[in-house]
């Protein structure tokens, strides 16, 4: 029988370290000397089906040459030549041009300074003249390519910086999800910016339309899936595409797609508002397969996001009766899922080669809400295998388990054995247990009123590692107290000592071997849970930091810089506020801490250091030092699709 147990804490099952992709395309597909080919005729829909597939792209190499060439054409000639000579050109991710600063090319291995000469107004004008119009989200494209050009404007609206992202259609990119796509699952993909969400859903759209002959309609918010221009890029295969005039009407276009074009599948990049979530849920109710992305790193992020919780069924607070609460062993007010989830499966994209699959999104949400660990299936594409897929072209068959391309790995043991794709397991708890126990063993047990010999016998019966539990005579060293109930009752000093050292007490009614063994089993299990909980708490903290920085980055890139308006972030702990402040500082922006009813939060101000409006000496608003402009490392990379997705709090 248990006396006390370790305090129950909220368990967070997961967080990810985002790893940079480690992929290589088969061989350099672009060679100097540089040339700017004409727009490809092969994007003519009638010719698409006859494309030979020789690489990981759905295009032959010269097609890729053309597309990357069209992005590099934005650069002045000398800079263009330097990028095209770079050995990692096939993996080029972005080109960054900021007025008065040296231009950069971003590769998976790091940033490359393209030129020692800073970017001039003419350079920016040369680049912007070649791209389509910038929409309200400050994004533009290059016709018939998948590249995305994002602008940074000054307060007067003039473009002073460009982030030019290379877009590619990569056929192997959705291989890890092929079985789910084929089964008709509605998939919600989440992941941080730049992790490859758009690339994956583009490939899913192509797969469904071409390989599974489905009527696929893409609702393409900023023309990122189907590329810029009115003729969609061949990367979407036979899928059709509806453009969205501006992100405010995305939900209407979603409904229109269903009502007018009879799709079997709808693909949409970035559901971010409540209206879009509602439209998605309406579509799901009509039995249409949905494939969508949303912002967030884990499923918990969605649960906690008031705009998006609807996607996972909605969350409600329920008050239980006394009896039910004690039966479940929970508090009287609990959180529960309100209704069916819009999507059947959730996919967390950890990196370009690693996914975490929640086969039943509803079960995952229920587990998280009740503090349990959800079943997660981890799928990895080994870089070698990835390379093979890319080199040999896509293998569109059902032999996921047979052909050895996809590994369903249990990262806990580092074993590369293949695990059946149907086998799901809670890897994370196992991982936590292992780590936690290794650090916290042995468990020191203080016994009172029970013979040590009986306790040792009990430990032996549980077949535990000899060193796992050690008996101690010093209560201040103990992790738990095991006592005979009748004896303990008569000794308030022991009770007080246990309380003052904050250790749990386990009591048995008798000192029989059976009862003692049961108690040991219970205390070991609780100890283990407690360790998991504390490890989970650490993970929650990391998750919160990631969220907070991402929130600040989005606010800066999507509101403060382009619109020149200030943004109030969500209340955070002072440690996290300092991290957000540091980020704002890297963007050369001012920020101040503001206290409100719900706690301290950061306000990011539009003024740059050196502008007339606010100077660092204005201490009423200045809360940090000034430094250089942001370095162009990955931490401030990427941008967000829409402005209305930020959680903004009134002051
Ligand atoms: N499997 C892959 N192999 C190589 N490069 C990839 C792969 N997937 C994506 N990329 C590249 O990574 C970059 C980011 O990809 P993508 O735009 O799909 O990310 P995202 O998660 O949709 O980003 P955002 O959230 O900012 O829109 C692009 O340059 C893309 O070509």
Automatic annotation (TrEMBL):
Q: Please give the GO cellular component terms listed in this UniProt entry.
A: chloroplast
Q: Which Pfam families match?
A: PTPase, Spore_III_AA
Question: Which InterPro entries does the record match to this protein?
Answer: AAA+_ATPase, P-loop_NTPase, PTPase_dom, R3H_AAA, Spore_III_AA_AAA+_ATPase
Question: What SMART domains does this protein's entry cite?
Answer: AAA
Sequence ranges assigned to domain AAA+ ATPase in this UniProt record: 183-314
Query: Is Nucleotide-binding a UniProt keyword of this protein?
Result: yes
- Nucleotide-binding found in the keyword field: yes
Superkingdom: Eukaryota
Keywords linked to the UniProt accession: ATP-binding, Nucleotide-binding
Which molecular function GO terms apply here?
ATP binding
Identification of the protein by name = AAA+ ATPase domain-containing protein
| Species of the source | Clitoria ternatea (Butterfly pea)
Phylogenetic classification of the source organism? Eukaryota, Viridiplantae, Streptophyta, Embryophyta, Tracheophyta
């Amino acid at each position: 029988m248990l006396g006390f147990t370790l305090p129950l804490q909220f368990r967070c099952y997961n967080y990810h370290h985002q790893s940079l992709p480690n992929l290589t395309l088969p061989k350099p597909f672009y060679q100097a000397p540089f040339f700017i080919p004409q727009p490809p005729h092969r994007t003519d829909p009638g010719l698409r089906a006859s494309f030979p597939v020789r690489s990981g792209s759905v295009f032959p190499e010269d097609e890729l040459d053309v597309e990357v060439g069209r992005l590099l054409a934005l650069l002045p000639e000398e800079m263009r030549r330097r990028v095209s000579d770079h050995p990692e050109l096939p993996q080029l991710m972005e080109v960054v041009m900021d007025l008065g600063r040296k231009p950069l090319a971003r590769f998976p291995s790091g940033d490359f300074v393209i030129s020692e000469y800073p970017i001039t107004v003419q350079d920016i004008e040369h680049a912007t003249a070649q791209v389509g119009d910038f929409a309200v989200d400050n994004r533009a494209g290059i016709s018939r390519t998948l590249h995305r050009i994002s602008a940074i404007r000054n307060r007067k609206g003039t473009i002073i910086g460009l982030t030019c992202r290379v877009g590619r259609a990569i056929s192997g990119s959705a291989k890890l999800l092929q079985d789910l796509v084929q089964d008709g699952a509605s998939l919600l993909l989440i992941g941080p910016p730049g992790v490859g969400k758009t690339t994956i859903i583009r490939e899913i759209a192509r797969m469904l339309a071409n390989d599974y002959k489905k009527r696929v309609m893409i609702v393409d918010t900023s023309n990122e899936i189907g590329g810029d221009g009115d003729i969609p890029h061949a990367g979407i295969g036979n899928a059709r595409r509806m453009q969205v005039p501006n992100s405010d009407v995305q939900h209407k276009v979603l409904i229109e797609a269903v009502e007018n074009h009879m799709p079997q599948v709808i693909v949409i990049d970035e559901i971010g508002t409540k209206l879009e979530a509602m439209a998605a849920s309406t579509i799901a109710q009509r039995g249409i397969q949905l494939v969508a992305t949303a912002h967030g790193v884990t499923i918990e992020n969605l649960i906690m996001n008031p705009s998006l919780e609807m996607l996972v069924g909605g969350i409600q607070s329920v008050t239980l009766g006394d009896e039910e609460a004690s039966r479940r062993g929970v508090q009287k007010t609990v959180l529960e899922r309100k209704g069916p989830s819009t999507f059947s499966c959730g996919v967390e994209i950890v990196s370009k080669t690693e996914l975490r699959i929640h086969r039943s999104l509803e079960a995952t949400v229920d587990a998280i809400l009740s503090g349990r660990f959800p079943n997660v299936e981890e799928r990895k594409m080994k870089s070698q295998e990835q390379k093979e897929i890319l080199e040999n072209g896509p293998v569109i068959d059902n032999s996921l388990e047979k052909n050895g391309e996809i590994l369903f790995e249990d990262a806990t043991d580092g074993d590369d054995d293949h695990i059946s794709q149907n086998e799901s397991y809670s890897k994370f708890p196992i991982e936590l247990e292992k780590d936690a126990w290794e650090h916290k063993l042995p468990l020191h047990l203080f016994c009172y009123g029970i013979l040590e010999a009986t306790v040792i016998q009990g430990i032996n019966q549980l077949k535990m590692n000899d060193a796992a539990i050690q008996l101690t005579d010093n209560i201040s060293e103990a992790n738990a107290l095991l006592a005979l109930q009748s004896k303990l009752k008569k000794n308030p000093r022991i009770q007080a000592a246990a309380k003052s050292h904050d250790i749990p007490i386990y009591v048995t009614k008798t000192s029989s071997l059976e009862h003692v063994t049961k108690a040991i089993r219970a205390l070991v299990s609780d100890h283990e849970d407690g360790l998991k909980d504390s490890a989970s708490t650490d993970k929650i903290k990391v998750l919160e930091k990631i969220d907070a920085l991402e929130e600040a980055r989005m606010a800066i890139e999507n509101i403060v810089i382009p619109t020149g308006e200030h943004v109030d972030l969500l209340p955070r702990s002072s440690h996290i506020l300092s991290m957000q402040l540091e980020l704002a500082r890297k963007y050369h922006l001012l920020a101040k801490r503001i206290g409100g009813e719900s706690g301290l939060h950061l306000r990011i101000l539009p003024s740059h250091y050196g502008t007339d409006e606010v100077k660092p000496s204005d201490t009423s608003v200045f809360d940090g030092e000034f430094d250089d402009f942001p370095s162009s490392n990955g931490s401030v990379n990427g941008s967000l699709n829409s402005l209305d997705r930020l959680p903004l709090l009134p002051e």
